[in-house]
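Order emerges. One example.
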Amino acid sequence: MSISSINYSSSVLGAQIRNINQQLTDLSTQLATGKLSQNYSGMGTNEGFAIAGRSQLSNIAAYTDTITNVNVNINLANTALQSLTTIRNTVQTGSASTAQDLNVNGQTVVQNTAASQFGSMVGVLNTQSGNRYLFSGTAFNTQSVANAGDIINGTTTQAGFKTVMAERQAADLGANGMGRLVQTQPTPSSVRVSEDVAGSPFGMKIAAVSSTLTGATVTGPSGSPVSFSVDLNGLNPNDGDKLSVQFTLPDGTTGQVDLTASTATPTPIGSFAIDATTPGNTATNLNTALNTAITKLANTSLVAASAITAGDNFFNTASSAIGAPVNNQAAPPAPISGATALSGASPSNSISPGFGAGDTITVNGTTLTFVNSGATGNQLNVGDSIQTLMRKIDQITGTSKPSTVHGGSITINTDDAASLNITTSNSGALNALGFGSTPVTATQPPLRVGSSPASSATTLVNGSANTVKWYTGNDGPGSPRSTAMARVDDSVTVQYGAQANEDAIRQQLQAIAVFGTFSTSPTSQYAGGQVSALSLRVTQSLTKQPGQQHIEDIQTDLAMAQNTMKDAGTRQTQAKAQLQSIIDQAESASPDQVASELLSLQNALQASYQVTSKLAQLSLVKFL
């Protein structure tokens, strides 16, 4: 009989020792790395929470990077906008001053400053963040604004603003320098003034006439083209009697001529002489004084208003459909207004011919139907006002700029010129609104004087083909803020886009361009009046008006986006700490616990080795 030797490696005790050794190795690794395991299988049942937490941490890291990048863009945009505010204040302060000393180029020092500030403003609007133009909307790879020199002076193939303004001034003044007015003396005792062409967008429009001239007969303003006449009937007015004529200028402002009958010698400025012996001479004196006053108004206030309007024609590139000026039914000389009714029958203050029950207007495929009363939805009452119709049209087109009626002319604004299409079953009524043909479509400014010579032109035409496009970024529909969006949290996005053609920016750029580009003859008797009238209008344009967008409004929008990101960042910082705690609990090894387990295992291993050593020395003799 024989007894087999004890095989250490295959014994239960040997396996236990190998297991203890493996545990010692694992604990040593945990102590060195601080982790429970080097692979997921060794992490335990809570590793699923750790994996999910790590994924969320990755998302937070991505959001953090996005917030950082968006904040850089917003900070740069805000710096640019603050620069624009500084430029505005500088030019506004200068334009409000009374200094009118002209240099050899026919400009004041303040105007030269404005020209320089225009170049600075263009540079600011072309600010980039990396390769992104901040004021180009979705077209962020495209320069926001054309070069300042091209905008003002044009290129070899396209006219700049200076040309557009000169054309407009020539068209508004007319060949005789009287603002497109024609003055005659039909009889020895009368004077007549008329607009040269009915419906022309140029020159001064006769708005109202009032008189206290004793014995005189005043007729009008009325007719087409509009005119008025004053007949002294062979009589002399009394000393101090007055004639007042009010005109509407191209920019919507008014100018007035006041003439007083006078016996004083010499005849005071703003008066006409009464000839006590020959009343016919008094009529001649009135004719001469009226001609002088109209010419002065045309060459001062009208010239300034023309420059402002030229700026709007060139810079205000919002899509629109513009109807010809028309009068209402009740008072032919009075232009239509928002309150004018759409019915030709009742009330009397209405267009003629008007819309009747059953007539329709279709806007971009949506039909508006006229009913006698009780209109709902896409219906209009025949007695509703023009303003009600425009609101309905704006609701359909979704325009960001409401349509308007001014000076008898309706302007239908739209954010998308290509889509505007208005038709009607009653073309006569639509024509009475100033739209002579259907379908009504939107033109895309810049607008240019329609024919040559400009002094006799009667239309404005789309100048897109031969005029510099000052804004070169995205100009599609929708809010400029929505042209740049970023997700900064799982359910939070911010909008931080901007466009150089936003009203607040465009109006400032336009006003400064007008002021810095306009020039006059230093020796002209009207030079001071022109600069004074223009300065007043530029100051007004650069003054913040209620209801208009301000540059500060854009800054507020961007600040709100930053606040939203700040709040998201705060939440993410808190979530990051909590998630890291979950991961640490699932994956981290406690140094104290590991050290304690190591010591315990080392003691166990030592005891096992001692037992093993004794067993290894065991023999049959010793066993017996």
About this structure: Residues 374 and 381 are 7 Å apart (CA to CA).
